[in-house]
Automatic annotation (TrEMBL):
This is Glutamate-1-semialdehyde 2,1-aminomutase. The keyword Cytoplasm applies. It holds the Pfam family Aminotran_3. Transmembrane segments: none annotated. It comes from Microbacterium jejuense. Its cofactor is pyridoxal 5'-phosphate.
Length: 455
């Protein structure tokens, strides 16, 4: 048996920083990364044979719990039939149909009757996904959506919000939250200035900033890209009606709204954030990832036929992928969506609420200034007196309190995201036993956060 420290030493000799994705290096929490060998339900086990209750969930995909039997069986069956053909399979169509059918919301007139603060908005589509293209990563999905928006509008500029993460493509790394925030990097080296100049970065939840950027350059802007409910600077919920206003402003200027649901899609509800945003709105393109691949590399772009059919082979916007729609990934995605029924969402919502409330109670008890931020069943703790609303207010929190909190939880067998800028991922398999183990670990971690001092 090796130790985590030995594995990390060896990995650093073979891979930059010993990892294949930076946040896994545990740099910002000053701890030895755990090397996992197996996982089941809400638990992960490291090379030392130690079991942890997991709140990372593979960064989202493990929504049913790790190695869910139905997902594993679906993947095994698919593998036995062939790992990939470089040609189309019936399963791809079925997954595309499943995505299109799920991403819907009740007719607006009915909603308007039920929710007094909503004015029916004429012409709003309740089935925004008519065609789907499957890709392998969320990065590819957002990159393709942007190329499509540029192809459709004949314009070059893209508006993004500070602190939102849309993957690691050149044009989207400016003030990208999460990983770059964890490493305290301003952006990335290696992005040509000419490409960075095509992205206009503005503060989140600030409609005046949106109006200003459109007033100044509206006829050059192809699209606004937005995390449906931001979760890569910790959780920062959209202000009431923000997404709807964003869509209206973009559309008034002939630009598209790209709704990034890579993280929220099929997690916060059957139709993602689109299905639960209290004010209906009309995104043009929606990107999916994580849950939709059930733990294997799969992501997707969806939208109306008129836009999506601008993609090759029908249209002039090129996009392709050797492993796109891989049969194993499709099988995992389909099995996962099939098991994400109302009962599964209820289990996730209940477990998430219990963990969130226990965490805030423990921190209160220890006298730690903090806020609990929630968007549906996604939540995170921010060490601030007032709820952060954008990247600047997120960065102003007492982030130094998180590493000791994290380490205390880990020492007691709870694996949290190794950064204060990440959401906590609860799964449908977090039963009472798993939740109690988390709850029991919280008081000591809260005391560690209380005792923390700035570096
Ligand atoms: C909102 C959002 N968009 C895009 C991505 C990129 O996805 P991937 O890591 O699969 O490339 C992520 C990943 O965390 C994300 O959270």
């Amino acid at each position: 048996m090796t130790t985590n420290a030995q594995e990390f030493d060896r990995a650093r000799g073979a891979m930059p920083g010993g990892v294949n994705s930076p946040v896994r290096a545990f740099g910002s929490v000053a701890e030895t990364p755990r090397f996992f060998v197996s996982a089941s339900g809400p638990y992960v086990t490291d090379v030392e044979g130690r079991e942890y209750v997991d709140l990372v969930g593979s960064w989202g995909p493990a929504i049913l719990g790790h190695a869910h039997p139905a997902v594993v069986t679906a993947v095994q069956d698919a593998a036995a039939r062939g790992l990939g053909f470089g040609a189309s399979t019936p399963g791809e169509t079925e997954l595309a149909e499943l995505i299109a059918a799920r991403v819907t919301r009740p007719p607006l007139v009915e909603r308007a009757r039920n929710e007094r603060d909503e004015t029916p908005r004429a012409g709003l589509e309740t089935h925004p996904v008519e065609r789907v293209r499957l890709v392998s990563t969320g990065t590819e999905a957002t990159m393709t959506a942007i190329r499509l928006a540029r192809g459709a509008t004949g314009r070059d500029l893209v508006v993004k919000f500070a602190g939102h993460y849309h993957g690691h493509s050149d044009g989207l790394l400016a003030e990208a939250g999460s990983g770059v925030a964890t490493l305290a990097m301003p952006g990335s080296a290696g992005v040509p200035a000419a490409i960075a100049a095509q992205t206009l970065v503005i503060p989140y939840n600030d409609l005046d900033a949106v109006r200003e950027v459109f007033a100044a350059r509206g006829d050059e802007i192809a699209a606004v890209i937005v995390e449906a409910a931001p979760a890569n600077m910790g959780i920062v919920p959209p202000a009431h009606g923000f997404n709807a206003a964003l869509a209206d402003i973009a559309h008034a200027h002939g630009a598209l709204l790209i709704l990034d649901e890579v993280l929220t899609g099929f997690r916060v509800g059957p139709a993602g954030w689109y299905g639960i945003d209290p004010v209906p709105f009309a995104p043009d393109l929606i990107t999916f990832g994580k849950v939709v691949g059930g733990g294997l590399p799969l992501a997707a772009i969806g939208g109306p036929a008129a836009l999506m059919e601008l993609l090759a082979p029908l249209g002039p916007v090129y996009q392709a992928g050797t492993l796109s729609g891989n049969p194993l990934a499709v099988a995992a995605g389909r099995a996962t969506l099939d098991h994400l029924d109302a009962a599964a969402y209820e289990r996730i919502d209940t477990a998430a609420a219990t963990v969130a409330e226990a965490t805030t109670a423990a921190l209160h008890e220890a006298g730690v200034t903090h806020v609990l931020q929630r968007s549906g069943n996604l939540f995170s703790i921010q060490f601030a007196a007032e709820p952060p609303i954008d990247y600047d207010t997120v960065k102003a929190q007492e982030a130094f309190r998180y590493p000791p909190f994290f380490r205390a939880m880990l020492a007691q067998g709870v694996s949290l995201p190794p950064s204060v800028f990440e959401a906590w991922f609860v799964s449908a398999s977090h039963d009472d036993t798993a939740v109690s183990r988390i709850v029991d670990a919280l008081p000591a971690a809260a005391r560690a956060a209380a005792e923390a001092t700035p570096d």
